[in-house]
Every structure is written in C-alpha cells, then in structure tokens.
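Sequence design from tokenized structure. All designs in this work follow the same two-part layout: the structure record, then the generated sequence. An example of the structure record is given first.
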C-alpha cells in the first residue's frame, strides 16, 4: 500500500494521493507505524509544493533580470533540455523556485551572459588552492601532528519566528544547532549569552547537538531566539601515504555500523553497485579506491537543492540528478565507500571564511588503517596542485573554518521533538514547533553572525600549574650525557632543590617529542630512532618490581606479564598492558617487558617513572619513555633518561603528584632560547 502511494506521489498524482491517504487515516485500520508514514507523505507533498512554486514565466523573468541579453529561444532550449528543474504535479508543470539560480551555477553559456557574476562555489576562498591549505600541510609535516592553524570563532545565531506563526499564548519550542566537543578539532566551547533563560544544551552524546529554548507567543509579534558562544577549531591534515593504508581482513566491531547500509539514504542499490564496479576495477588499496570514488563524486556539478525531507534517498538522488549539493555528494560518497568495506560517516555544520563567506555545509569522515578517522570534503574536492598532499588535501584533511554540529544524520533531538522535523536529515538551521504541530521553514528566518580570530601560540609553565620541574639539559642534540636538576615553585618563584647530577639519554641524543609544549620546528622523535624526547612532559606515576618504593607518586608493581607496547599499528601502542588480560597475541613483537630482571636479566626497571610522551599514543611517534636506572654513566638508553640508583631514590622521594610534576628536557641552546618565553627555572 505505502509503496503504491509513494509511487503515485513520485509521479505527481498529488490530489489522488491526498484523498486516498486522508481516507486511510480516518478509517481506523492503520497501525501506529503506518499512520506516521502516511501522515508524513501528506506533509511531504505540502513541502514539495512549497519548493515548486514557480511558473515558466517566473523563471523566464528571473533569467532576463540578471542576464539582460538572454533570448526567449535560449531559455526555451534550456527548458527543453531539462536544465530548468521542474515537476509535473496533478498535470501542471511547476518549476523549482531556485531553477533560475541553479542554471547560473550549472550552465556556462548562461553564466557568460551575466556580467560580473561569480558562482556560489567560486566565492568560497577555500574551494580552490589557498595559502591556508599550504600552511596546514607545512605545519603538520614539520610538527608531525595532524592539527594546525587554530582559530577561535565567535558565533551569534538568531532564529526569528514570524508573528502569528504560533497562536498567542501557546508555547514556542525551539532547537538551535550547537557545536559538539570534538577532541583536537573543536574544543573550549563556551556559551556566553542566550535570549531566554534556562536553555537546555544537549550532551555531547547527541550526535546532532542542539540548545533548546522556549517562550510563549505574543499576538502580532515576531519572537526572536538567539545564542552567543565561542569555540576553538583546528585545521587537519593527515598527509596520507597510500602505501601505508591497509585493507581490513575483518572489520572491527566498532566500525561495523560504518560499512553497512543506513536507510533510507545509504542503500546499496543495483545502480550504485554497477557504478562502483566500473569505477573501482581491480584496485584493492582502500585509499586509492577512495581517491577514485572521490574524483567521480567531485565531478558532479553543484547546485542548491530542494528540501532534503522531500527526497527519499539522497545518494540515489545524487546519482540520478544532473547536479548535487554538498549533502547529496557526501551521502553518495559515503555509500560508495561503505560498499567497498571502507568505514565512512556523516559530519556537518557550517563553514566560514575570515571575512564575508559563510554557508551551511556537509562533509564526512572516512577511516583508513592505520590513520584512523580522517575528514573528507568532496564538495571542496580535488585542489589544483602538483603537490599530491595539497591536491588531495580534502581526502584526509580539513580547513580550520568549520563549525561542527552533527556527527550523524537523522538523529533524535534533545529534548525530544513531538512533531515532524522541518529538516529530517541535517540539523543546521534549527527546529520549531508548538502543541499544534511543526513550524516549517517558511514561517521563520535565521541569521548567522561570526568572527574568526587566529589563535597565536603562547605557552609557559605557569599555564600548566606545575610546582615541580625535573630539568634535564644536554650540551647538543646528539649528546648522550647530560645533567639533571630539581626545582620547586615556592612563593611564585622557582627554587633549586638539588645539586645537578649526571644522567644519560638516548643513544642518538634528543629530538622534539609530543608533550605539553607547543609544536617546534626540527626533527621529531620517531619509533626506534634511539632519541630521547625533548620538550615538557608530565611525570604521571612510578613503577618497579619491589613491593613498594618511597614516593608520593602513584606506584605500580610490575609482574612478568606486564609489557609496554612499542609495536607500530598496535591498538595498545605506547601503553603498558597485562598479558593475562590482553592475550599473547597483543604483546607479540614488543621489545619492552616491564620485568627486565626476568626477561632481560638486568635491573634497569627496578625503579622507574613514566614520562607522558606521545600521550595520544600515535603510532610510530615514539613509545615507552621512562626515567629508569642506568647501565653506567657512558652507556645511553634506547630513548629514555637514566641515572644511578642513589639519585633515582632522591628523585622518587621528592616527587609529589599533588604538585603536578613535569620533566623538561632540552639542549643548552634550546634552554637559553626558551627560558624566558616558557618561564623555565
């Protein structure tokens, strides 16, 4: 029944369908699900009619207004070719209200007749190669971090409900989109003001996050709802090497949902299967497959869309239509990726420039092993550059002018919305309802105001709140020996707590590590390079194989089953595990047993301290960094800092976790250069 009625609606038989649905809804034979489905089909037809409101004369008038030299013959030809979007509803040809606008986005001849016109996509400074892309790639290559070019963005978002859209005295319920806290990408979200008291901010567990406001409608008065907030955002570039990307033998459980169909918009239709086979050929590398799919979808022309709630399947629509907008392109790419066993998911919100450009926007995320989840934006597409890292920037990277509301589509709002959503897929403008039903887009307006402020990197020990510093200095970056001195902050000043004593570091000296300090130029530590990390690092806890040791740090007694994992690509990389818990396979290949007295016949790890280098556990960026006992004053480590047992005992008894101790390891030159800026002792 539903399929037959849907087919009638798709064929434009609205009057017949409305009568049939109304009859079915009133005769009491439908179950709850059928009632909801058919009720929405009535709503869908109303929304389609709101999109297709223009006559041919309306479109013709629009085109002649902006392209004064266009002829009737040219317009008729475009219409004959189907370039002016229309639907036949109850036998009458009705044009999409933006058919004329879209012609200028899609047809080169039309845009050549419009003097001085710039297409919408071309107005966005980041839809072509830009210094911002170059800076992100260069910065991430230098620092070996995925994140760079931070911005603070301040937002005022306003939704204004038309006067008398809701009867006077009735409660207007409003959901405004609100940013999600996303580690390293979108952080420090601060609500600074709102138009109404007691706003309800949905938790980050809501994949379409909102802030809820409400107020009673007043006769003949528009009601304005607004919020002000700020957040920090980072650009992203993973600089992916296709040769490092490996296909899954088995899809991990936590990724299974991202390689399956997600109806109605992610469906592996016969048409898409056929297209996929033609595009992929015999390629097996996941990243190279993604490149082929990305290139195909990027070739689709962009145009503004009818409302998503009126489209039954966005990916299929993008395949069949002569153009697709950002969400349709993204959904098509996600579907094709999933068909190839490559995990992919939705992400969306808003995008800006530093000055005039802003728009709602949809993009996605794709998972490549061993890089993990990385951004993709096929609407920005392939950039015109001979540098492969820049050319494919948007397949593994993203600019820092984004506002992320959504990490999935068609997710429930909080508090729950009682009536149909105006936007059933995305959540970028907001939602409005009252007890009598949904308030659709044509009964309210929205306004986005923003300000972008680049974040200048500044850093000092004061920012960390630490009161204890273990300072390690070497003469040069290739030196294997150095000196260690302890300092404690007293009355706001650093006071030396010990005489300096000898230590040894990595067999090839020092290199910048990943810690608390800002990213630095120069060589950065990598797995197996024999370098101890330079920079500032938390000293998190102590370890050893004695029953206990004298220290105010937390202490973990190690057993023969404890290993620190230094195996590239391991899910436990840079983490200490218990073999009896994780299993024999998980420690396979690790060269770091924590009971060296048992496994390696030495006592280097009799007493030690964990150094929080590479706290995000990024594969290949260096692992298992400790302060431990040395073999001797001329014998370096594999990448740690080591000393004699007397000085280790002195250090352990002095360290106090309540004072947030850190280790600062630098060459003498870097210490002199950074001492004032970082407020070092």
């Amino acid at each position: 029944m539903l399929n037959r009625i849907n087919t009638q609606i798709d064929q434009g038989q609205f009057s017949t369908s409305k009568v049939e649905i109304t009859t079915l809804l009133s005769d009491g034979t439908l179950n709850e699900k059928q009632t909801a489905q058919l009720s929405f089909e009535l709503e869908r037809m109303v929304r389609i009619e709101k999109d297709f409101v223009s006559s041919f004369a309306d479109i013709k008038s629009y085109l002649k207004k902006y392209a004064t030299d266009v002829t009737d013959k040219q317009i008729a030809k475009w219409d004959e070719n189907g370039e002016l979007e229309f639907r036949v509803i109850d036998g009458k040809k009705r044009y999409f209200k933006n058919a004329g606008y879209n012609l200028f986005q899609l047809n080169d001849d039309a845009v050549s007749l419009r003097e001085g016109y710039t297409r919408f996509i071309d107005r966005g400074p980041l839809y072509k190669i830009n210094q911002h892309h170059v800076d992100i790639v260069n910065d991430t290559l230098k620092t070996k971090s995925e994140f760079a070019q931070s911005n603070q963005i301040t937002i005022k978002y306003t939704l204004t409900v038309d006067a008398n859209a809701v009867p006077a005295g009735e409660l207007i319920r409003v959901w405004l989109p609100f940013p999600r806290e996303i580690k390293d990408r979108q952080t420090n979200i601060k609500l600074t003001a709102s138009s109404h008291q007691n706003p309800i901010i949905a938790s980050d567990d809501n994949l379409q996050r909102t802030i809820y406001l409400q107020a009673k409608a007043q006769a003949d008065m528009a009601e304005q709802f607004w919020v002000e907030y700020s957040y920090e955002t980072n650009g992203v570039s993973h600089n992916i090497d296709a040769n490092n990307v490996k296909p899954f033998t088995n899809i991990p459980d936590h990724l299974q949902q991202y390689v399956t169909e997600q109806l109605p918009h992610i469906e592996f239709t016969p048409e898409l299967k056929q297209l996929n086979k033609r595009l992929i050929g015999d390629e097996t590398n996941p990243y190279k497959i993604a490149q082929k799919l990305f290139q195909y979808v990027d070739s689709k022309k962009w145009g503004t869309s009818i409302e998503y709630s009126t489209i039954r399947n966005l990916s299929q629509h993008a395949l069949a239509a002569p153009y697709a907008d950002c969400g349709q392109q993204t959904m098509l790419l996600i579907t094709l990726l999933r068909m190839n066993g490559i995990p992919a998911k939705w992400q969306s919100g808003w995008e800006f420039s530093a000055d005039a450009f802003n728009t709602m926007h949809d993009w996605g995320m794709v998972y490549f092993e061993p890089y993990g989840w990385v951004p993709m934006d096929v609407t920005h597409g392939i950039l015109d550059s001979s540098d492969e890292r820049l050319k494919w920037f948007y397949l593994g990277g993203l600019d820092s002018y984004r506002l992320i509301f959504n990490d999935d589509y068609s997710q429930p709002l909080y508090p729950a919305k009682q009536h149909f959503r105006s936007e059933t897929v995305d959540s970028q403008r907001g939602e409005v309802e009252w007890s009598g039903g949904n308030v659709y887009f044509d009964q309210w307006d929205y306004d986005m105001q923003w300000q972008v402020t680049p974040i200048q990197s500044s850093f000092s020990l004061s920012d960390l709140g630490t009161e204890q510093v273990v300072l390690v200095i070497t003469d040069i970056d290739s030196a294997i020996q150095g000196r260690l001195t302890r300092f404690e902050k007293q009355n706001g000043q650093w006071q030396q707590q010990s005489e300096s004593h000898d230590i040894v570091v990595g067999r090839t000296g020092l290199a910048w590590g990943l810690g608390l300090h800002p990213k630095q130029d120069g060589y950065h530590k990598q797995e197996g390079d024999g370098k101890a990390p330079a920079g500032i690092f938390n000293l998190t806890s102590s370890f050893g194989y004695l029953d206990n040791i004298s220290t105010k740090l937390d202490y973990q007694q190690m057993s023969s089953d404890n290993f620190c994992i230094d195996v590239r690509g391991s899910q436990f990389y840079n983490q200490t595990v218990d073999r009896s818990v994780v299993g024999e396979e998980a420690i396979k290949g690790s060269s770091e047993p924590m009971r060296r007295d048992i496994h390696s016949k030495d006592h280097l790890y009799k007493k030690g301290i964990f150094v929080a280098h590479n706290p995000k556990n990024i594969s290949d960026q260096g692992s298992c960094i400790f302060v431990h006992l040395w073999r001797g004053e001329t014998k370096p480590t594999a990448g740690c800092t080591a000393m004699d047992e007397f000085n280790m005992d002195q250090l352990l008894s002095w360290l106090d976790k309540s004072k947030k101790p850190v280790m600062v390891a630098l060459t003498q030159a870097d210490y002199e250069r950074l001492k004032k800026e970082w407020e070092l002792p």
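Residues 2-112 form one domain. We note this feature because it recurs in several other targets discussed in the main text.
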